[in-house]
Structures are given as C-alpha cells and as structure tokens.
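re: ur question from yesterday

yeah so i grabbed the chain u mentioned. its 377 aa long if i counted rite. heres the sequnce exactly as i have it in my notes:
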Amino acid sequence: MITFTDKRLYVKGTCSAILSDKNTGDIVYFSDKFQTGNMTTSVTTGEIRAGLGNGIATIIPSDSALNVEFAAADFNLFAKMAQVGGTLNYNAPAMTCQIVEASSGTLTIDVTGGDPVAQLGFSDVFCYVQEVGASSPISIYGKSYLISSAGEVTGFTATSGKKYKVWYCVNQASAQVGAVPSFIDPATYHFTAQMAVYMNATGTASNNTGSRCGWLYVIVPSLKLAGTGGGVVGDQSTNDTTSISGMATIADSDVVSENCESCGGGNIYAYYVYVPDNAAESIEGLAIVGGLITLNASAKAQVPVKYVMANGELVTPNYTDLSYELTTPISGASVSEAGVITAGANSGDGEVTVTYDKVSPALTCVANVSVVGGGGG
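ran it thru and got these structure tokens back, copy pasting raw so excuse formatting
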C-alpha cells in the first residue's frame, strides 16, 4: 500500500472563544475557561429509488446543519441573557440592611444612601424588621412592612431604646439584572473559538520545546444561540457553567459575489482556519508571475513574486518578509526592502534575485527586468 510522509496534526483544548456583534464587530463576550467545546455537522441524505428492485438511483442531501456546543466554567450573566434573548441592565434593586435605634414607637431609616424601592416582582415598597439580640422566627419577623421614600416604616411598633435591623431594597448602580422573557428568542452573534494544535515532534511554539505547533480558529459568522443556556445551577458540588450553544445560520452577504450561479451552494456556515506557529511550514517555493518585468525609465514596479504553497496554490506574500537584490544590475536602478524596483534614467536589462530565508535551505527565484525609454546604459 502506498504511504505518505505528511505531518499528522492533533487538536485538543479550547484556548478561548468570543462572541462579536455582527454589525459592529464589537466583542460582547469572552472566556478562556472552557471545559467543553464541540462543533458538529449533520445532513439528511435523501434516497431516490427507482427501477427494477427499487434500488437507490441517487442520494440528494438536504437539511444541513452545524451545531456549536461550548461550556465555560466561569459565570457570565450577559451570555445567559443572550441565550434567551433577555435584557441586561445595571442599577438593579438589591437587599440592604440598616441598624436603627428607636427613639419612639416608630422607625425611620436614613435614606441618604438611596430611597427604598420595590423588590423585583413586587409593586409595593416594603421592608422587614428584626430586633437586634432577639430570636427571629419567620412567623413574626417574616412579616413585611410598608416603607416610604422618606424611610418611614408603617405598621411596626418599636420599643424606644431598642435596636432594630431594617431590611429593604435600594437601587445599586453596580447591581446587574437580567430579565428572562416568556418569549425566548435567542440572540445571533459572530462566533470565534481558538483551539490548540499539536504534532508528534518538537513543535514550533514560542518556547520551541513543546509539541504544540499552531492554532485552529473555528469561525461561525452567524450563530443563533440555542436558548437552552439561560438557567443557573446551584448544586452544592457542581459549579454553574456558561453555555455558548446554538446553530449556525446562513450569513447573507451584503456584496455581490463573483459567482454567476444564484444557487450554487456558495453559502457558508463556518470556517476552519489553521495558523501554524512556523509561518513557512507550507511554503514550498517562490515564483514570479507574469514573466518579464518591463517598466519605463524613472518608473516603479513591484516584483510580482508569489509563494508556491504545498498544494500548488500561489499566494501573495508580505513583501517585506523577502529580500531582494539586483544580481544583474541596471544602471541607475534600485530595489527596495519591499521589492519595489525604481528605474533610473537609463535603459537596460537585469535580474532581481528574491530570497526567502525563513526555511532551510532558503528559497530563491529570479525576476527578469527590462527598463525601456531611457538613455543608453
């Protein structure tokens, strides 16, 4: 059996993931504490049967889907609200306590720290009163008492000289409130996850000793959250997690594509982008595209060099990653560090040697150059 020597890559572990606003690109959620992370695809393969024996004549796919299931160990209220399409705001009512020493049969708290407000889910503004130093059975101290915006407790009879705890709600600027609607319509975001890639050799990570050799980025341009991650776990032995789960939807383009087919299957659910730590890993050669470089005297031209990738694809490089030398000079001509040839006043023919030295052995190619319209060299 024929064998090949391609490097085998292994993906394990999610470094981080983000949700971004689809319109502005603003990052609205980030976590690097993921415990699980899975992308799954599915499609219905519909059989068409025909002929003698009603055999399978063909199989036509339909009902494709891409699902995202990520769970982070940290708690994030925004993500829970995004899952259910709920709102998230600050300045929420929160319970607070104030100790008051009665000077008469009535109690009045100091409201300089904020007026009493109704607890979420209630219309009336009320408080609870407990006597300091006394027992507190629910049947007595679980009774609610109306409290005014001025801090006056209604219906409770105090004993002068005794201290009381008055529990009431006040709006706290830093307190967040998430409202879970009865009509759950999850939000849609751009999703990106970063996963670690390894190989069975010393990798090219920054420390140059481990086996990690790059990163895999999973990008879902339009992720409709599932609506199932808005709950909260209060187990004594299991922490709550934040779920980023949902289904990819077709991201409608806002520009006209180069494809002339209107239903050519060009819609995209997701992208997988592998970024090796060693940028030269898949570069196998250099090529000059277009043949002879011809330019007028005193004009400029970019050396049209391309990377030749492992699959034969030609890719435009970052020109400053290469070096350039006029190995056959032309009078008055020069070449910059970015591969821009500047012709002089004289005509002539020459060569530019392009070198990529981030691999061993270095890759080189030669561009033929002709300057026309100038004086004699």
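noticed a couple things. Residues 93 and 121 are 11 Å apart (CA to CA). also Helices lie at 77-84, 138-141.
anyway ttyl
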